[in-house]
Design goal:
Blueprint (H helix, E strand, L loop, with lengths): L7 E9 L3 E9 L6 E9 L2 E6 L5 E9 L4 E5 L2 E3 L6 H13 L1 E2 L2 E8 L10 E7 L2 E2 L11 E7 H9 L6 H20 L3
Length: 188
Amino acid sequence: MTLRPWPLVRDEELLRYKVFAVHKTHRRSPRTEQDHGFFLVHTLDWVNVVALTDQEELVLVRQYRPGPDAMTLEIPGGCVDPGEDFGTAARRELREESGYVAREFIRLGAVNPNPALFNNTIETWLALGCTRAGDVQPDPGEDLEVVMVPLAEAEAMAARGELNHALALSGLYLYRLWRDQRARAAPL
C-alpha cells in the first residue's frame, strides 16, 4: 500500500488569538474514504539559536513558562515576525532574549514542532563568537535570566532533566549533527 496525503474536505477556524488560531479540519482517508476531524493550531514559524562564545560557553535563558507552571532553561528563540526571514529573526531573538550578538550565523536545519497539531516550522541557527552587547530586552510577557553553561555540560544537564525543553533539545541535537559532520569532513 502506498500512503497518500488526505484530501481536505473542509476547514473551520474555531478561535483566533494574537499568535495562533485553532482550526477543526476535516480530511478524507484515501484508504477508507471516511472523513476524520482534526484540531490544528495555525501559528507563526519559530526560531531557536544555539549560541556559543569563543570559550565554548552556551548561552541559555531561564524563564517562567505557564504550561508546566515552572521555570525552564532554554536556548534563545521565539516567533518569526510576519515578513521577517528566519535568519533575521534568529539574530533579533538572540539579542532580545540574551543581550548577545554573534560574529557568525549558520543555519543548522528545520523541524516540525509537533506535526499532529501544529502547522509551523522551527529553524535552528548556530551563533558563533557570541559576545555581550547590552541588556536583555524581554517582551512584556516574559522575564529572562541569562545562564552561561560550558557546552560540555549541556548534555549532562539534559540527562539530569535540568534542560528539558523539547525544542531546545532538538536544536542542540541539530548542532551536534553539524559538529560531528564537520569533524568527519576535517582533514587528518
